Amino acid sequence: MENCIFCKINQGIVIASVVYEDEVSIAFMDIQPVTPGHVLVVPRYHAAGLSDLPEKIGGHLFIIGQKIAAGLKNSEIRCEGTNFFLADGAVAFQTVFHVHLHVIPRFSGDGFRLSFGPDYHNLPKREELDRLAKILKSGL
User: Fold this and answer.
1) What is the pLDDT of residue 13?
2) What's the CA gap between 90 and 140, in Å, rounded?
3) What is the edge-to-edge ordering of all strands in the sheet holding 18-21?
4) Which of 15, 20, 71, 104 would bridge with 27, disulfide CB 3.0–4.6 Å?
5) Catalytic sites, residue numbers
6) Is 104 in a helix, a strand, or coil?
7) Tell me, what's the pLDDT at 5?
8) Which domains can be identified in the chain, with CATH numbers?
9) What's the pLDDT score for residue 25?
10) What is the pLDDT along the chain (140 residues), one digit of tens a residue?
11) Are 73 and 106 in contact (CB under 8 A)?
12) Helix (H, G, I), strand (E, B) or coil at 54
C-alpha cells in the first residue's frame, strides 16, 4: 500500500483532478484517458482485487459511477453513452492493483473498441450454458 498510487491520491500525497469524494470513495480524471472525461472511481479502502473488497464498498463504487455517468451526460463533455470497466487481475488488464472503476464517456467515432476472440460468434448450446451455470452456482 505504501507504493500504491491510488492510496497516495487518497492521502493527498499525489495530486489528482477530483470530481467527487466522500468518506468511502474518490473519483478523479484518468491521466491516460480513453476519451476526454474518462474518470476513475476509487475506494478509499485499499483492496488489490475484487475478492478483497467488501461488497458494500463495491456497490458504492457503482452508485458513484452512475452519478459520474449522469454528470457526463449533463455536462459539455462529449458523451453519447458510457462504458464502465473494472479490471480484476493482470490477465484482465489490471495495471494498478487497487480496485478502481473506469467511467468512460463514449461517442460515435471515438476509436475505442472491444476485441473478441475467434470463437465469439460460435454460440454455445443450452446444455453447455446450463453446465457452466451449475459449476458457477457451486462456487457462490
Assistant:
1) 96
2) 22
3) 18-21, 25-29, 39-43, 101-106, 81-85
4) 20
5) 100
6) strand
7) 97
8) 5-114 (3.30.428.10)
9) 98
10) 779 999 999 999 999 999 999 999 999 999 999 999 999 999 999 999 999 999 999 999 999 999 999 999 999 999 999 999 999 999 999 999 999 999 999 999 999 998 999 999 999 999 999 999 999 999 99
11) no
12) coil
CA distance 134 to 124: 15
The helix (H) or strand (E) run that includes residue 70 is helix 55-73
Report pTM: 0.93
Say if residues 106 and 79 touch (Cβ distance below 8 Å).
yes
Residue 90 carries which DSSP code? G
What residues contact 103, with CB distance under 8 A and at least 6 apart? 27, 38, 39, 40, 41, 65, 68, 69, 72, 82, 83, 84
Report yes or no: 18 and 28 within 8 Å, Cβ to Cβ: yes
74 neighbors 55 (Cβ within 8 angstroms): no
Quote the pLDDT of residue 97.
Answer: 97
Q: What amino acid is encoded at 77 in this protein?
A: I
Pair 9, 26: CB distance under 8 Å: yes
Beta carbons of 52 and 44 less than 8 angstroms apart:
no
Residue 17 corresponds to which cell in the numbers above?
A: 483532478
- Cell numbers placing 66: 452512475
